[in-house]
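hey so u asked for the seq, here:
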Amino acid sequence: MENRSAATATSTLQGALARIASMLDEHADEALTQAEAILARAPGLPPAELLACQALRRLGKPKAALPRLSILARSQPRVPAILWELAQTASETGNSEQAVAALENLTRQQPAVATGWFLLAKELRKAGREEEAWRADLSGVHASSRDRELLEAAVAMNEGQLDDSEAKLTARLERLPDDPAACRLLGEIHWRRGDMTEALTLVERAVHLAPGYDLARDFLVRLLLQTNRLPEALEHAETLVRSPLRNSSHDLLKASVLVRLGDQEQARTIYERLLAQRADQPQLWQNLGHVLKTLGRQADAVHAYRQAVTYQPTMGEAWWSLANLKTVKLGAEDIAAMEQALHSLEPESKTRQEDIFHLHFSLGKAFEDAKDDDASFRHYDQGNRLRRTMVTHDAASFSAEVAAAATLFTGPFIAQMGEGGCPAPDPIFVVGLPRSGSTLVEQILASHSQVEGTMELPEMMMIAGRLQSRVDEGEFPDFRAMITALTPADRLRLGEEYIERTRVHRVTDKPLFIDKMPNNWQHVGLIQMILPNARIIDARRHPVGCCYSAWKQHFARGQAFSYDFADLGRYYRDYVAQMAAFDEAMPGRVHRVIYEQMVADTAGEVSRLLDYLGLPFEEACLAFWQNDRAVRTASSEQVRQPIFTGGVDHWKRFEAWLAPLTDALGPVVDSYPQPPSDWRGWLSA
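ran it, structure tokens below
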């Protein structure tokens, strides 16, 4: 009978304690009253004492709770709930050392519970113990990697079940809003969907919650690079390299940010330091080669690329990087080595496609230098066919976009839109097709005392892409409606955004700077709307020579139209039509540089170019090859020597194979350098 009564009393007490616990969040005052009532009957009862302290903290009285919790924790040192409450209460009263002690005890007992580690990291930072805090965050991340709920969400994401994964993570964050691992994972889901804004918000939150979360910060740097937020990317990359867990990948990430910022020298220092520690790293040698090439140190670049293929003979990109040094010729031994590499890759042909097409492009260049035009064309053709299967380019859709822009930005429409945009005269846009001589124009202008050369800047294309997304997402019915809706204030803001975002690439106080993104020909109307005082230079080359040169050039990114003759011909025609339409809308607004004329009469063409820009003539522009600025394009080595005429008609060696290209180009071949008379019809076809 006594046992039954004791059991009943215990059950009744447990029920009362459970009811008090359920009141804590919404009725903490009542919970405190009832807990104290139990303690009056059973002084020092640990569960009731814990509930009373929890209620006090929720009522905003942590100082009253702390001494009671300290006594409780000494008598019950192995109860995680008591240690957790003590840590949070000590934190709220500003007693970080006591909070740290409680959390260190807690994490020793429960190392697999991530929340304890993350709170410990937070308290350690308050106490100025930064490295220990970083390590605590890393321990929290490690614990999170074993969390079943997070593992299930990660598996669902990796299997493409994004909705299922998002639902799991959203539910978790409603319950645990400060979970950095869940924030990072949900950010990756949004990134996979293409929602960069939300991805950045979530990943930035993960890093804010756990500054020592290296994987999240690494991901954040890559997101910032994708959105061209380079100064922020560098700041986070520099934080990563200070991680107590030394990782060479952090150094490599910082180097990649520096390259994007144009700081080739500092990137070179990083690569050379890592190679001094361990030389047998082909990717590092290749990266070093890219930097040295940009800096104009050709012999050193050649050595670096050759080191890369020595350590990894099948490394197609390194072979192409060698071949792509236009002034370097690959010999018979190189050809044999590349053919052997191709043969060895045959069993892995589906997984090593990038190496294979790079090797074909490299062999195309090697046989071209060896005057074996048949073998050269065959390898270029194989490389292009393979590469075309790996990129997306919808020629018809692109033509429709060009037609929409060309038919919108007419003279009357531009007049109707009136004044607006940012009045800054700083930018000089050099537009056209790749391999059109635009790097030569850039190098000539960058040799002028008032003009700074930068690189192919993505900012205008990013602004244009963001505007187009407003149409794609249904905010506007079409491109015309979206552009028409831009107020003068909108256009001023967009122009100022361009100036501000490109400022990071300017390292001198020269008043003018060059943006040599060739694809900006697609956005000349937008440039007029938001930067009406910017100069626009159209670098144009013979259509067959330009297109064939682009076809045999593998581009590191973009230019998806360049791997098929039909796509190339149509793209060139679209370009000619749009630029002709803009010339008609705003005569004289664009200055055209014809490559063949620049080669034939450099001094005269340079004088006309500088007159268009309102700049005085300077002899340095004619000695442009003496300019030691960094050049990142495929023509980097060619512009480090005087103009040569050999490239003008080089394509004629391969004329026997170019009928598909000339057919696709149609009348632009015979009318060059003028547009054909029927160009307007292309825009309505």
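Confidence is low (pLDDT under 50) at residues 632-637. The longest strand covers residues 427-432.
lmk if thats what u needed
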